[in-house]
Amino acid sequence: MTGIAAGMSTCGKVPFISTFAMFAAGRSFEQVRNAIGYPHLNVKIGATHAGISVGEDGATHQCNEDIALMRVIPGMVVINPSDDVEAKAAVKAAYEHNGPVYMRFGRLAVPVINDRPDYKFELGKGVVLKEGEDMTIFATGLCVVEALLAAEKLAADGIDAEVINIHTIKPLDNELVIASAKKTGKVFTVEEHSIIGGLGAAVSEVLCENCPTKVTRIGVNDVFGESGPAVELLHKYGLDAEGIYNKIKETM
Amino acid sequence: MNKLELQKTAVEVRKGIVSSVHSAKAGHPGGSLSAADIFTYLYFEEMNIDPKDPKKADRDRFVLSKGHTAPGLYSALANRGYFPVEDLLTLRHTGSYLQGHPDMKHIPGVDMSSGSLGQGVSTAVGMALAAKMDGADYRVYTLCGDGEIQEGQIWEAAMFAGHRKLDNLVVIVDNNNLQIDGAIDEVCSPYPIDKKFEAFNFHVINIDGNDMDAIAAAFAEAKATKGMPTAIIAKTVKGKGVSFMENNAGWHGKAPNDAEYETAMEDLKKAGEALCQ
To answer: Which pLDDT tens digit goes with each residue over B87-103?
Structure first.
């Protein structure tokens, strides 16, 4: 599928291909890298069932490594939308972008947070969903809504958290990341992905070089997932609002 | 071109292979030389192409699935006029556009980047499918190694091509019987290759891949075949045309030293002269 899409794109088509993230980024990594990435072809990859929220299928199908794998390919754009409004916008943006794009989608239905008239999707631009002074939470994908809920709980404790939706992990909105880190001085990243190589790593890399700031990465902590209902797994792995809140309180 | 002209051109293509690999001090002469007659026929007779307009939309496409034999492709392209023949001597040199494996972004006439074995049939299938979708009549050719078809992805793509009845696709297998580690039937036999492609719903043609008449007949038969893709199983001699390289797996991926280069070029010079008798 990946190779066929590459060939089609050389003939002027804009192929969208789709399968589980485990196969789109995992099994096909080398095809994506060599047949799409190296010639910088205009192929869009819609990777579904990403992260542990695949649920009952268990670790074999729970891809917590795809952002890392795709991010390292030169010229690849990596998008992880936070709800269905953003997912639709991301597909349009991917089509309009000339070059390879990896879109990461989950299986679990998540609350809609972007259903507002002024919503606009800009590739590579983070979105400040809640301004704050005490700390910044950079979140991506379904963890964005959980980060917002965690920020509400923190507010009840008198902690003013800034919440930023990073829907495009590559190219990262370096300017926004640096500005917010400078403002609050404390950074948390939240993702349904390994803490290695994903959003946490991307944010850490930028801050290390530009504005050294303590970063706490919240994600799948270098372990494989397991079977279970998605919501229970997100809770068990500390990626729901409660888990994010607890981790932040513990760290602060 | 008539047969004699094609044969003479194939000698020039072989000289370019030997010179470029010698200059690079690395590369894959054996499989480039075995396929030199096929490269020559494709670029000088078979394909609808224009070296002055390498990207023209209705051109026939070629994917070198066995991308390590880039010296053969580059030599055919250079001799056909896509870029200067002298540039072949920059093969694999730092800063040269002639990368070790085909790079569609920088080399005029290269339709697809390739080299990671097993992937070329898939990308060729994508091109053939795009042509069908657009109602375009360009044809797509891809050349695989016989060792390369040990890769599973080849058969995934073949299954799809057969299923979609891509009769604008020709898969050529350069059956020189040798891969880097030795004879293919000793390493991991892909035989019977023809029966396998037949089982994947291909029209299959077995030929002597170093015989210009046989090559011409096979491509004509492929063009006349409707409703299914064609596989040409081309029996060839690895290292063909250079006496000490023929049928020797040791020359899969090794450059000739200066003395060997002289001998090889002498062999080819004589072959060229014999054609002028």
So the answer is: 999 999 999 999 999 99
Whether residue A146 sits in one domain with residue A245 = yes
- Residue partners of B115: CB distance under 8 A and separation at least 6: A34, B67, B68, B70, B100, B101, B102
Summarize pLDDT for B140-180 with one digit per residue, the tens.
999 999 999 999 999 999 999 999 999 999 999 999 999 99
- What are the beta bridge partners of residue A78? A102, A170
* A3/B129 Cβ within 8 A: no
Which residue from B103, B112, B134 is facing A7, i.e. has the nearest CB? B112
The domain total for chain B is 1
Q: From A8, which residue of chain B is nearest by alpha-carbon distance?
A: B126
> Under a CB-based contact definition with an 8 Å cutoff, are residues B238 and B248 in contact?
yes
Determine phi and psi for B49, rounding to 5 degrees. Answer: -140, 165
Q: Are the C-beta atoms of residues A77 and A49 closer than 8 Å to each other?
A: no
Tell me how far CA of residue B33 lies from CA of A73, A248, B76, in angstroms.
Answer: 34, 65, 11
A131 shares its domain with A245: yes
Q: The pTM is what?
A: 0.95
The C-alpha angle B156, B157, B158, rounded to 5 degrees, equals: 90
What range does the domain containing B14 cover?
Answer: 3-275
User: Which residues of B fall within a CB distance of 8 Å from A38?
Assistant: 103, 113
Single-letter amino acid code for the residue at B122:
S
Question: What contacts 24+ positions apart, CB below 8 Å, involve B270-275?
Answer: B271/B11, B271/B14, B271/B241, B272/B8, B272/B11, B272/B12, B275/B4, B275/B7, B275/B8, B275/B11
> For position A91, which CATH number holds?
3.40.50.970
Q: Does B123 touch chain A (CB under 8 A)?
A: yes
Q: Do residue A40 and residue B63 have CB atoms under 8 angstroms apart?
A: no
A176 and A240 in a common domain: yes
